[in-house]
Model the fold of this input.
Amino acid sequence: SNPFEVKVNRQKFDILGRKTKNDVGLPGVSRSKAIKKRNQTLLKEYKEREKTNVFKDKRFGEYNAKITPEEKMIRRFALERQQNYGKKNIYNLNEDEELTHYGQSLAEIEKLNYIVDSDSDTEERGTLSAELTAAHFGGGGGLLRKKVSSEQQDEEEEKPKSRKELIEEMIAKSKQEKQERQTRRESALELTEKLDKDWKEIQALIARKPPKSERKDKEEEKPKPDEYDMIVRELGFEMKAKPSERLKTEEELAKEEQARLQKLEADRLRRMRGIDEEANKKRPSHMSADDLADGFILDKDDRRLLSYKDGKINIENEEEEGEEEEEEGEEEDNENEEESQEESASEDEEDGAADSHSDLESDLESEEEAAGDKKEKKHKANENEAPNVEKLDPKREAAKSELPYTFAVPESYETFKSLLGGRTIEQQLIILERIQKCNHPSLAVGNKAKLEKLFGFLLEYIGELATLDLPELRTIDKLVLPLYNLCQMFPEAASDSIKFILRDAAHDLEEVIEVKGRATFPGLDTLIYLKIVSLLFPTSDFWHPVVTPAFMYMSQLLTKCRVTTLQDVIKGLFVCCLFLEYVSLSRRFVPELINFLLGVLHISLPKKQAQGYTVVHPFTPVGKNLELLLVCDEEDLKSWEKQNVPLSIVTRLKETSRTEINHTRLSCLALCFDLIKKCAALYESLPSFHEIMHPVRILLTQHVPVNEYPEKLQECYHSALKELENKVKHYTPMICEKKKPVPLKQYTPKIVKVLEFGKKQAGSKKEQERKQLIQRHKRELKGAIREIRKDNQYLARMQLSETMERDSARKRKVKELLGSLATQEGEWKAMKRKKWKN
Amino acid sequence: QLPTGLYKKVLVILHDSVLPYMNEPTLMMDFLTVAYGIGGAISLLALNGLFILIHQHNLEYPDFYKKLYNLLDPSIYHVKYRARFFHLTDLFLSSSHLPAYLVAAFIKRLSRLALTAPPEALLMIIPFICNLFRRHPACRVLLHRPAGPADMSEDPYVMEEEEPSESRALESSLWEIQSLQNHYYPDVAKAAAVLNQSLSEMEDDISGLLELSAYELFDKEIKKKAVDVPLEFEQVRGLFGKKNDIFAEHFSLD
Done:
């Protein structure tokens, strides 16, 4: 306003479109504002710095903005009443004053028992009294009331009274009323006493409870309330039905689920093609990457629900939806039953199957619970265990009494092992689940690291289980679930520990190769780890931090490791299966796979000169390992039946008869045929499919002694061959992609999105964000420092003024004293002089 | 006449510990030609000595390229002397005076054999082939044939033909490399995809790639730092619990 109080920040150049916030400043205003604020806060604090007692505002809800003023008033009133309740004030004559409406106590009205007492005027029964209408229909408009008020007005008009008169009148009235009321009460008391007496006499006759209070007695006298009235009142107080959020139908849920899966699938495809790797880096990271710590893992929830709810099961293909749902549901049921059976069998209890089954269900429920509402769980993880306890069957509970409900995360692998050792599979799972629940990262700071360690322990444990003489693969089969869950929580740590294992394995392999010159296949544990990789991570990605090294390792296994025994063949075929599974979605080409299958076919042939094909490392056209899969025994050939190869055979080839060995060989061959078939289906689209499969085809058509094989094997053979043969040969000459013409240099302005003026726009979005944050931080820091400085200045000023005040006061007082002394002295001298004179 | 082990040992050291010190290196001619004719690893090893004789001592070796061509079989990508062999092959094929049909035959054969090669060899052979294309632009029809027949039922190239000139390599296309663009190892796929575009002028340096080992590749991969780790979204149901799990069909958990 006043031009002398305005400070203008002059701009050197006017730039169109630039928003200027700080072109005009009002230093005086802002300074006075700041001082005022400090007066209210800092000065107050300063003045109260040596005071220990504080003034506390205990008014209910004074600073609570959430409560509306009316509500606040109501609550305060209620509180006041509560405080006064029970305190009898001898001076308060109006103590048991009742709130009334039309002369009826409100408390009674609320009890729904308010009914016009029609005892006195029975003749009016059936007609509508004014009061009744007023109660029912809100007093029937203004007619009745108007009458009353107009009467009053008339009175007032008649004789205008002075204020004093009025007040006197009111006092007199109230006194009168009080007296009347007292007398009435006394009479009522007498009456009730009399009634009590009477009642007691009758009481023996009627078997009913004695009345508790006078009021009840009074009620007894009244007629029973009308049904209509009751209903009307009830309706008035009835909870109004409120619209709640609509429950989603199954269809919608399925649709949502589908959309989610489609999104994930699209994501996977993008990664598989690996085209936009660069763009990928700039994009906000994959959604699963940042759901580590906070525990609000929505996806995970869905997944959990997925696997346990029929009807909403994880489905990839839309067509198969309906059928598979049912199938999977059935499967799960079966699984449940199986588990329950196992359980009852494994634990020597008298528990019926039903018991354990129900127990299992409760476990499932608790799992769902856990998955269901993380937030709730966050607050009461410990309480969460409580319902568990209740749900468990008492019998079962007794049997499992040694299982505590809370577990600390084991610090070392030894403790972890001792924790799980000697338990059944179910117990182990429960223990793991409880460890996870009790140590959820949202509960304490260190839990994340602990659980990450747990993943490593679990992996190690699985490895150990697999290296046992009798590998406990069933246990591993179940342990994969907690492993998966942990991996979903901590992808980074999980990938690190798996990479560590892979590195170790590859390192061992390399060492063996360097020392001995050739390598042997690793143990079952490594194979299981490789399988687990495919369960935990998407194997179709163009590049993946875990899967790609696993690929390289498997490639080494198939090219470097010698095949000398039947176990080696089985392991090799296992790795082939792994390869096929890894590339089943991405359809990537794996030369090693074809080579190995060719080699396996090769060693199933009788020794003779290989023609038309060449085998490559690790197989040799001549050598002692030939005929490893050759079966000559006619009987064994006949008695063979197609069956799955038990994995335990890998660690110890049972000391079995030749027949069984031969059968295993034939199973391997069948597996090999099937893999060839799958390869053919997989690589169909490759332009040089026929060249790739050429050696295999020659071997199959010209060398394999089909006719000697049992029928089932012949079937396998023929289906594989059919798959190979019926692919069309189709070659189109290659044409180079045209080079994109380099655009001419143009001088049109480059248009860049401007985030902030005067700032460099270089760098990625993330970088820019970081810079912005740094900048903001700097600004805030500067502002804070400035504020603190000003505070200090203000305080110093205050202190200075205080001391000045004190000093001036002192000076004044000293002056006063001196003055008074001087006058005293003067007077005294004057007296003296007088004396002298006298 | 020598046992195989000794033969190999002799041939390995021949070119730098024996030949330079002989007054008449040409005396080794017969030995080397015989060794070259034996085939397999011994031929590969003999190549080195032979090269010195041809290069420095004016040895005229008839059908040298034909023999070299026939040395190429699937095992060359797997043997220990791979680096040495390809180093020499690179030298032999570096002459720009070679006929296009010969180079095309070599390219075609090498890439055909690459279909069985391990990734470390592939990483070497693809730039190798690229270099051949750069040296012999006439061979680029293998990559770019806009005027050819639209559809062929058969690859014109004859793999079994021993004579490079008869192999009809120039009528073919490099479908093998196209297949390798689908290789599981991302680096190989990327290297193969280079051939889709027209090649740059500069030759690739393959000397560093010759000695690649599988373990090195593994090490390189495992040391890469990932920004984030994508996860499998399909819920696990057990070790072999995936849909259409191959393992569940063939293995049991007993």
